[in-house]
Amino acid sequence: MKFFSASFTAMKALILKEINQPVEFEDFENPSAGEDEVIVDLKAAALNHRDVWITKGMYPGVTTPLIMGSDGAGICEGKEVVINPSINWGDNPHFPNKNYHILGSPTQGTFAEYIKVNKQLIFPKPAHLDWETAAALPLGGLTAYRALFTKGQVKAGENVLISGVGGGVALFAFQFALAAGANVFVTSGSQEKIDRAMNMGAKGGVNYKDDNWIKDLKTMAGGFDVIIDSAAGEGFGQLAKTCNSGARMVIYGGSRGNIGKLSPQIVFWKQVSIHGTSMGNDQEFADMLDFVSQHQIIPVVDSVFALEDGQKALERMDAGKQFGKIVLKMGS
């Protein structure tokens, strides 16, 4: 099935033409919907670190020209919708099938005025969200929901640690855990981000650059029942020292590399469970939207750029200074 329509009708899009080169804001042919597909008139899209890594060639199989972007919200057949970026998960809720991929590579993504997607990926936009906050939700919200609830099995009153607060997934996990009635603590390499999390309801936070950060965490919280981590590296082994008996440690990223210095004695004597997770299935996406609507959760938006300023948005993401999601707005 061809991506292009038979007659050229241009839309504006951010186009990655070559790895390690800036994206370009240019005309691109409008998508044409095939069987079981719909067209979404996008009003906003949001960035993920995935988009930056794609521009650097850090994902296998990237083909250009490419419209990146996994997060989007807009109008489809007269209704306000958000797009589930999780494509072809399959029938097994526990893990995706071999044909699974994420919107925005290799499938053309949301950094454009219009997009075609399978109609099964369209869900009603939570009514309390505007376009920017709705667009911020899909990928990060889905990943955080599965990490916290499916894998972490969090319960009200438990102590939860969210590492690297400030990133999109980490902030969603933070907000979701608060809404679930947990006692939430955070780590960050930025005191400003810790302070902001404290103002949002965190019970405490530590800077992982400090020499005594693990000791300070244990003093502060006593121990943790659920740990949500995106960094791994040697710090993960240190985090294990803060686990309560029966704790669940959930990893959804590995920005600091392979795990080192993890004591197996801690894991088996305390009956600690370690879970890996990434994205989520269609039912989890629907459940996440229901949870957001029920608790009136508003995603944290760091900044909003016009679509034509997408390269500046990617540079801000790459700098790692954001607190919350970076959003692209279409039109005026």
Give a structural overview.
This protein is α/β, with parallel strands linked by helices and 332 residues long. The protein has two domains: 10-137 and 299-329, Quinone Oxidoreductase, Chain A, domain 1 (Alpha-Beta Complex), CATH 3.90.180; 141-276, 3-Layer(aba) Sandwich (Rossmann fold), CATH 3.40.50. 28% of the residues lie in helices and 27% in strands. It is built from ten helices and 17 strands. The strands form four sheets. Strands 3, 4, 5, 8, 9, 16 and 17 form a seven-stranded mixed sheet that branches. β11, α5 (191-200) and β12 (204-207) form a beta-alpha-beta unit. α3 (138-151) crosses α4 (168-179) and α3 (138-151) crosses α9 (282-294).
Task: Summarize this structure as a short list of keywords or feature phrases.
28% helix, seven-stranded mixed β-sheet, six-stranded parallel β-sheet, disordered N terminus, globular, 17 strands, 332 residues, alpha/beta, Rossmann fold
Give a summary of the structure in a few sentences.
With 332 residues, this protein is of the alpha/beta class. Helix content is 28%, strand content 27%. The chain folds into two domains: 10-137 and 299-329, Medium-chain alcohol dehydrogenases, catalytic domain (Quinone Oxidoreductase, Chain A, domain 1, Alpha-Beta Complex), CATH 3.90.180.10; 141-276, Rossmann fold (3-Layer(aba) Sandwich).
**What is the element string, with H for helices and E for strands?**
EEEHEEEEEEHHEHEHEHEHEHEHEHE
Helicity level, as a percent range?
25-40%
| Sheet with most strands | 7 strands, mixed
Give the strand content.
25-35%
Instruction: Name the CATH homologous superfamily of the largest domain.
Output: Medium-chain alcohol dehydrogenases, catalytic domain
